[in-house]
Amino acid sequence: MAWILKYYECSECGSKWTDEWSCSCNDRCPNCRAETEPHDDVDLTYVVKPAASDMSVVMFSPESAESSPDYVPIGVFANKADAWAFVRTQQE
User: Fold this and answer.
1) Which residues of 15-29 are buried (b: 16+ CB within 10 A; e: fewer)?
2) pLDDT tens profile 58-91
3) Is the dihedral of CA 12, 18, 21, 24 positive or negative?
4) What's the mean pLDDT in 36-59?
5) H/E element holding 6?
6) Distance between CA 72 and CA 50 in Å, rounded?
7) pTM for the whole thing?
8) CA distance 21 to 78
9) CB 8 within 8 A of CB 19
10) For residues 60 and 71, is the Cβ–Cβ distance under 8 A?
11) What does the alpha-carbon distance between residue 60 and residue 72 come to, in Å, rounded to a whole number?
């Protein structure tokens, strides 16, 4: 994975937050500074964005992404369903 949305819940104070980064790593609670592991994550390496005339573009975050996803377009499709079908083939 090159870009990840991570979900955290602090076991010390109960604070909840999210963070996006290029790896699934621990974070410090923004409230009490306790080190916390993510309890869930979402792979954002591929995203589908709307394009002109109801078309959809697939964006890809390369392995070189570190502090931002650095998305690049890798395909334009007639609709969102076709774009997500393409993403599924890339993830296999």
Assistant:
1) eeeeeebbeeeebeb
2) 999 988 887 889 999 999 999 999 999 999 999 8
3) positive
4) 93
5) strand 4-9
6) 14
7) 0.77
8) 30
9) yes
10) yes
11) 5
